[in-house]
Every structure is written in structure tokens, then in C-alpha cells.
Design goal:
- The protein is mainly α.
- It has 27 helices and two strands.
- The protein has a two-stranded antiparallel sheet with strand order 1-2.
- The longest helix has 27 residues.
- 48% of the residues are buried.
């Protein structure tokens, strides 16, 4: 078991080691990590992270997405308390978590489908290209933490030795389930996975003698978690502006069935066609008369019916089809509306089913032809590893990532806007500006394009143009703190200090640890003769942004000293 775990973990680490050299923070990592000054407060940040939403740390109470993931946030806080904003320790932690998940999956699969199938499944799971987003994207650690927590809970609550779980193991399983709940929302489906596992592999039902208390404890944990969300969040469940806003249920169902075949199943199985941006209109809505959509939906229905029949007969393949796939229910847009149609990271736990089914196929072939089975498994591992490595290169820098996103979804204004900004920051200003202007022409209602053009105008010294663009950005996205700070700077340039200070105070009301707002409000207080009011602002800025070039100046001003020239 130790040797097999070492093999599986070593394979996972070898495939993903390249991401240790990633340049910069990509996508949400930029906002939730690099730009999240709350993480610089050390232990002082813990109460806030435990009692507020995941996105509230950067967007305030008006965050468009309501999520509660304190364990994930605390893991990031630990990084900043030990190694600061260094990227490689964060990526290393993700790689090691993936290796841990692979070992836990190996042990769970071994117990249920045997050594040969379990080892093959774990090796394949370690290198599946569809996992690149979950492992390379630092903030996708939520997927890794949930998987590790739930696989550990599955082992602790395994009734292999009998239906009665010892109290020590039962509470360990419940604690791991709770850890999963505090990492990402879809962990709440673990009791369903456990119930299906009990039935398939042990013939036990949740209300069977000896299992009732285990499932009752898990139900109590889930109820407590939902109650905590109700107390702490503005919305218990809120996934932003719905992707299928304005369309009917049938359109969503048919579109999702097509999407699942083309962008989930096929890329997961083949490693081909992976994409980081599924925003509209890449996936066209399927109309009620779309025969291909109905064909896809019928195929899913037949597969589900066959799996349910197999599950009734306690056939292992049926469990691996249904139980892991159930973790897609919260993100399928049919139960809870989300602002995206899907993402590759959502497939991290569901792909365990695919890996297990492939492992079962390898084991079955091995019983007939051992050499052919080994050749098939080796070929699949090499293919997947090469595809994962190729995909991993996309995640090595922002320009590479967004260039790939635009290539797979040319109609995505979000990716075009982000690519333009990445190019400007890289020094390719003309090319980046052209990309931003193209994004603006493509969709004049996307607020980030206006903000990034406003920031470019400000850097060029054109405060009037920057103010106009910042106002347009705020008209479309009124809660954008960065746009509010930029507008405040433009107002200051025009001598409207009181109005500028009011804008900055609005930002600090929403996000008290916004370092740019703190520093600039401190400057305005100093300019208007309010030195006593400015000092605490400078002191807090220096603590939140110790690596900022202005930190030394801010510390001097906070102490009432004249800053160095």
C-alpha cells in the first residue's frame, strides 16, 4: 500500500511540477490572493474570515457571489503569514493536496473494486488533463480540499468491518465532512455518496441497524452548516447573475445536456478540447426544436436509467457512474442558477467515476490478457500525462492563459479584456490597448473594459478621459472598488478634495482593508490639514501593504515624521 501510494503520488507530482514556475497571479488568484489585503493582517484577519463570505474579503457585503469557504481562506492566510505573497509555496501546496487526494482515492477504490482496478484508476486520476485547472489555479484549492476531506471521511465511515462504526471513527468522519463543507458548498452531497456506497458494496441502507446514527450525525452537520450560512451571508445561496437568465427550464436542460457531452465528457475522456472560458455565446442555447439537444438528453436519460437499474442490483459500475457525478448537481444550472454554464474544475470529484470505470476496464482486460492490459494502461497514462503537461503550460502566465482562453472562445469579452490588460502590464501597450478597444466594440456593456481603459488613460496623464471612463465603469458596475478609487483620484486632480474623500470613504465602508483607499484618503486628510485623522490611515496602510513602495513613507507619516525624499 505504501509503495502504491508513493507511485501514484509521485506520478501526480511529476506531471504538475512545472506549475511551480508560474509567473504572476492568474484570474481570480489576482483578486482573492494578490489583491486581498485582508490576508496581510495575520491572526487579526481570522475572525473576519470565519464570519464573512468568501468574496466579501475583496468586494465587501455587496459581493455578487455568496460563498462561505473559511477553511479555504484560512489556508491562504497561512501562506501569507509564513511565506508572504510568494507563489511557488501556494502552487506546491496544491500539488501536494492533489497527490494526497490521489492516495486517498487509491485506498477508497482498492477497498471497493480491488487492487488492480483501484491502482489503475488512481494512476489515471492523477494525470487526467481535465484536472489542470483545479491543480494549477490556486483558488481552485477548494476542489482539492473538498476531495481530500470527503475521501478521508469515506474511509473513516466505511462499514467494511460491520455496520456499527466506532464512535471515534464516526466523529472523525463527521469532522472531515465538516471540513469539506467549510471548503466548498458541494461537499453537502457526501451523505448521498456514502449512502450509495453502503448499499452497493455492503447492502446497507441509511436506516439499517448500525448506520442510522452515522447518517443522522452527517445530517446534523449539514443542517448546522446551512444554518451558519443563513446567519452569516446576505443570501444563503446566490451564484451571481444567472447564466440562463431570461430563458426557460427546457432551454437550460437541453443546453446543459449538449454542454455536458461536448465540453465535459469528451474532454475528460480524451484530454482534447479543454477550455478555460465558457462564457456566452460559445455554447449556443438549445431550442426546443434542436434534435441534437434532444438526442444528447435522451442519451443521458438512457445512461441514467441503466445506471439506476444497475444500482438497484448493486453493480459497482453503476455506483461509479452515478455517485461522483452527483457532485455536479449544484453547478448544473438546473437546481441553483450560476453565473457560468460550467468549468473544468467542477469535474475534479466527478472524474473519479470516470477513472474508476477505466480502472475496472483495465482490470477486466488484465484477467484475459495481462500484457495487453499493461500496454493499454501505459499508453493511456502517457497520453494523459502529455496532454496535462501541454495544458499546464497555458497556466504559466497571464498572457498565455488569456491567449488560450481567447483562442477557444473568441467571443468572450471578459477574456479579451483581461488579455489586453495582461499585455499592457507586460509592456506591449499598443497591442493591449487594441485588444481592449476591440472588447469594448464587441460588448459596450462590460464594465471592466472601461475601467482598464481608464487606468491606461490615468497612467498616460489624461485625468479627464480617465474620469469619464471610470464613471462609465461605475455606471455598469457600481460596486467596483478599484473604479471608485480611480474616480476619487481623478476628482482630487480636479481639486474636488471633499468629493474625492467621500468616494474613498465609501470604498472603506465596503472593504475596510482596501490599501489604495486608505493611502489616498490619508493623503487627502493630510492635504486638508487633518494630520491626526491621516495618521491611523497611513499606519493601517503600512501594515496592509508592507511591500508597497509607499509603505516606508506611510510609516513615517503615521509616526508624525517627515518622510524621506
Amino acid at each position: 500500500r505504501v509503495g502504491a501510494c508513493a507511485l501514484v503520488a509521485g506520478t501526480a507530482v511529476a506531471v504538475y511540477a512545472m506549475i511551480l514556475g508560474t509567473e504572476g497571479f492568474i484570474r481570480d488568484d489576482r483578486w482573492l490572493l494578490a489583491g486581498n489585503r485582508l490576508l496581510r493582517l495575520g491572526l487579526e484577519a481570522v475572525p473576519r474570515l470565519l464570519t464573512s463570505g468568501y468574496w466579501e474579503s475583496v468586494a465587501g457585503a455587496a459581493a455578487p457571489v455568496q460563498e462561505y469557504r473559511p477553511l479555504l481562506s484560512l489556508s491562504f492566510l497561512l501562506h501569507f503569514m509564513t511565506s508572504g505573497a510568494l507563489k511557488w509555496p501556494m502552487h506546491a501546496a496544491n500539488i501536494l493536496l492533489h497527490a494526497l487526494v490521489c492516495c486517498l482515492f487509491l485506498e477508497n477504490a482498492r477497498r471497493r473494486i480491488g487492487w488492480s482496478a483501484g491502482l489503475a484508476a488512481a494512476l489515471l486520476f492523477a494525470v487526467l488533463p481535465v484536472h489542470v485547472e483545479a491543480v494549477s489555479y490556486i483558488t481552485s484549492r477548494s476542489e482539492l480540499l473538498v476531495a481530500a476531506s470527503l475521501l478521508g471521511a469515506w474511509l473513516a465511515l466505511d462499514p467494511a468491518a460491520g455496520p456499527y462504526t466506532p464512535a471515534r471513527r464516526m466523529f472523525l468522519g463527521a469532522a472531515l465532512f465538516w471540513a469539506g463543507l467549510l471548503s466548498k458548498e458541494h461537499a453537502i452531497l457526501f451523505p448521498l455518496l456514502l449512502a450509495l456506497s453502503d448499499w452497493t458494496f455492503h447492502g446497507l441502507k441509511p436506516w439499517s441497524s448500525g448506520r442510522l446514527r452515522t447518517h443522522a450525525l452527517l445530517a446534523l452537520c449539514a443542517a448546522a452548516y446551512l444554518g451558519l450560512r443563513w446567519l452569516l451571508l446576505a443570501h444563503v445561496i446566490h451564484g451571481g447573475t444567472p447564466y440562463f437568465s431570461g430563458t426557460g427550464r427546457w432551454v437550460a436542460l437541453l443546453t446543459m445536456s449538449n454542454f455536458a457531452w461536448r465540453h465535459y465528457f469528451w474532454p475528460s475522456l480524451s484530454g482534447i478540447g479543454l477550455c478555460a472560458d465558457y462564457s456566452r455565446p460559445l455554447v449556443p442555447d438549445a431550442g426546443i426544436h434542436s434534435w441534437t439537444a434532444w438526442l444528447g438528453l435522451s442519451a443521458w436519460a438512457l445512461l441514467s436509467a441503466a445506471a439506476l437499474r444497475g444500482l438497484y442490483r448493486r453493480e459497482p459500475w453503476a455506483f461509479w457512474v452515478l455517485a461522483p457525478a452527483a457532485f455536479l448537481l449544484p453547478t448544473c444550472n438546473l437546481i441553483f442558477p450560476l453565473d457560468t454554464i460550467g468549468a473544468e474544475r467542477f469535474l475534479y470529484i466527478p472524474s473519479m467515476g470516470l477513472a474508476a470505470l477505466l480502472g475496472l476496464a483495465v482490470a477486466r482486460l488484465q484477467s484475459r490478457d495481462r500484457t495487453a492490459a499493461h500496454l493499454l494502461l501505459t499508453g493511456a497514462l502517457v497520453w494523459y500525462a502529455l496532454a496535462a503537461a501541454a495544458r499546464g503550460r497555458v497556466w504559466l502566465s497571464e498572457p498565455a492563459y488569456y491567449a488560450a482562453a481567447v483562442a477557444c472562445n473568441p467571443a468572450s469579452v471578459r477574456s479579451r479584456c483581461a488579455l489586453g490588460t495582461a499585455l499592457i502590464e507586460k509592456g506591449e501597450v499598443a497591442k493591449g490597448e487594441a485588444m481592449l478597444l476591440g472588447a469594448l466594440a464587441q460588448d459596450p456593456l462590460y464594465p471592466k473594459t472601461y475601467f482598464n481603459l481608464a487606468r491606461l488613460a490615468w497612467d498616460r496623464g489624461d485625468a479627464a478621459k480617465a474620469e469619464s471612463l471610470a464613471r462609465q465603469a461605475l455606471a455598469l458596475g457600481p460596486h467596483d472598488c478599484a473604479a471608485r478609487v480611480l474616480l476619487a483620484l481623478c476628482l482630487e486632480r480636479r481639486g474636488r478634495l471633499a468629493e474625492s474623500a467621500a468616494r474613498l470613504e465609501e470604498v472603506l465602508t465596503a472593504v475596510p482593508w482596501d490599501s489604495e483607499a486608505l493611502f489616498n484618503l490619508g493623503r487627502i486628510r493630510l492635504m486638508t490639514g487633518q494630520a491626526d485623522a491621516a495618521r491611523p490611515l497611513f499606519a493601517r496602510f503600512a501594515r496592509l501593504a508592507p511591500d508597497d513602495p509607499a509603505a516606508a513613507q506611510a510609516r513615517a507619516l503615521a509616526e508624525g515624521r517627515s518622510p524621506a525624499p
